[in-house]
């Protein structure tokens, strides 16, 4: 199978790209390298380009003779989406419209889309199944839900098989310590917490301690990035031009912000000072997956079920690459 991976130099996209290659699949990243890192992409597997450039995308799809697209490229920060919704709407919705038109032009009939548990929003019921009502709580989540509907509409009108994967919180780093999480600016909890024992910050700020959860801090379902990647591999294998599917991808276990900090303390052996702060706008109290459909229907089994093992992979990466990908040399010639 030949797959074009938009956002394939990003954190989750590059993990999936490398997983596809490890399974013998002919996969190529398409990325503008604004958030992505050429260093995360294996040799000769990167096409540099903008999602909004429909012509360049169409040419890339034709060049790699793509049978399918995995679509990761997106703006992903909840807080940023509240401050700058224009960027999120144009990037996520405008960019996907460009991609869908390029796929039509190139005759590509299969697609996996990185959606998010954030589309479920404020639901009081956890764990969340795929039929949980979607009431997105932030501009970011609303862009993702809108894209889900764009894909459904294109599928009906033009014929397109799709699987929507609603991720919970991608986390961790590759088990060989070579590839990890590196955003600029970094907004995600685990890399921020690990920055304290690395000496990059003196404390972690906890956003909100008055949530209706046992310790008052937000609960999330942290799924290892390589387990996300294996879900993509199973999902693309099951996606035909007639498929219209949705799966949650999460472990089914929730961890509070406080529990994540404690796991980081156990893994690093260091005390991590905390500062209590107000809630971050756009954050729902608790997001935990019911992953039973993915397990039953596609046989998915996460390798990482203990949060400390997830944190340990992240710690290994951050210790070896304290400045992120900056210190690594890119091995890929762009094509
Ligand atoms: N969080 C926090 N302090 C930080 C960063 C994040 O308390 O410095 C919280 C955030 O409010 C959320 C959880 O950690 O409840 C996970 O946030 P992250 O940005 O990692 O992922 P999100 O759930 O927003 O996709």
Give a short summary of the structure.
With 335 residues, this protein is α/β, with parallel strands linked by helices. The chain has ten helices and 14 strands. Strands 3-2-1-4-5-6-11 form a seven-stranded parallel sheet, with helices on both faces. It has a three-stranded mixed sheet with strand order 12-9-14.
Q: How does this model look, in words?
A:
- The chain has a single domain (2-327), classed as NAD(P)-binding Rossmann-like Domain (Rossmann fold, 3-Layer(aba) Sandwich), CATH 3.40.50.
- It is 37% helix and 17% strand.
- The strands form 4 sheets. Strands 3-2-1-4-5-6-11 form a 7-stranded parallel beta sheet, sandwiched between helices.
- The chain has helices spanning 11-22, 54-63, 78-83, 85-106, 139-159, 189-194, 225-237, 257-268, 292-298, 307-320; strands at residues 2-6, 26-31, 46-48, 68-71, 110-116, 161-167, 169-171, 204-207, 219-220, 222-224, 244-249, 255-256, 274-277, 286-287.
- It is built from 10 helices and 14 strands.
- Helix 1 packs across helix 7 (225-237) and helix 2 crosses helix 4 (85-106).
- The protein is α/β, with parallel strands linked by helices and 335 residues long.
- The structure holds uridine-5'-diphosphate.
- Uridine-5'-diphosphate (UDP) is lined by residues 78, 169, 187-189, 192, 204-207, 218, 220, 257, 280, 283.
- Uridine-5'-diphosphate is lined by residues 78, 169, 187-189, 192, 204-207, 218, 220, 257, 280, 283.
């Amino acid at each position: 199978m030949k797959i074009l991976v938009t956002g394939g130099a990003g954190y989750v996209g590059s993990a999936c790209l490398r997983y596809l290659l490890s399974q013998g699949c002919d996969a190529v990243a398409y990325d503008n390298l604004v958030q992505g890192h050429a260093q995360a992409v294996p040799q000769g597997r990167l096409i540099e380009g903008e999602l909004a450039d429909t012509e360049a995308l169409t040419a890339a799809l034709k060049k790699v003779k793509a049978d399918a697209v995995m679509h990761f490229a997106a703006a992903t920060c909840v807080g940023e989406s509240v401050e700058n919704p224009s960027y999120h709407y144009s990037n996520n919705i405008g960019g996907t419209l460009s991609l869908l038109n390029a796929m039509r032009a190139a005759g590509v009939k299969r697609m996996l889309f990185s959606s998010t548990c954030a589309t479920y929003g404020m639901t009081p019921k956890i764990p969340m199944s795929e039929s949980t009502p979607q009431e997105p709580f932030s501009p970011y989540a609303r862009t993702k839900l809108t894209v889900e509907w764009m894909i459904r509409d294109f599928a009906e009108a033009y014929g397109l098989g799709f699987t929507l994967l609603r991720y919970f919180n991608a986390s961790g780093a590759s088990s060989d310590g070579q590839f990890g999480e590196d955003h600029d600016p970094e907004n995600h909890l685990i890399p921020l917490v690990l920055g304290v024992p690395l000496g990059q910050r003196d404390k972690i700020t906890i956003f909100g301690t008055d949530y209706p959860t046992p310790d008052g801090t937000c609960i999330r379902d942290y799924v290892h990035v390589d387990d996300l990647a294996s879900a993509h591999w199973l999902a693309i294998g099951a996606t035909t031009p007639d498929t219209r599917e949705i799966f949650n991808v999460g472990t089914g276990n929730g961890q509070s912000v406080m529990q994540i900090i404690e796991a980081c303390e156990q893994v690093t052996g260091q005390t991590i000072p905390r500062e209590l702060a107000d809630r971050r706008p756009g954050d729902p109290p608790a997001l935990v997956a019911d992953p039973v459909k993915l397990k039953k229907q596609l046989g998915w089994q996460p390798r990482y079920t203990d949060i400390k093992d997830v944190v340990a992979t992240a710690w290994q990466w951050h210790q070896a690459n304290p400045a992120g990908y900056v210190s690594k040399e890119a091995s890929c010639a762009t094509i």
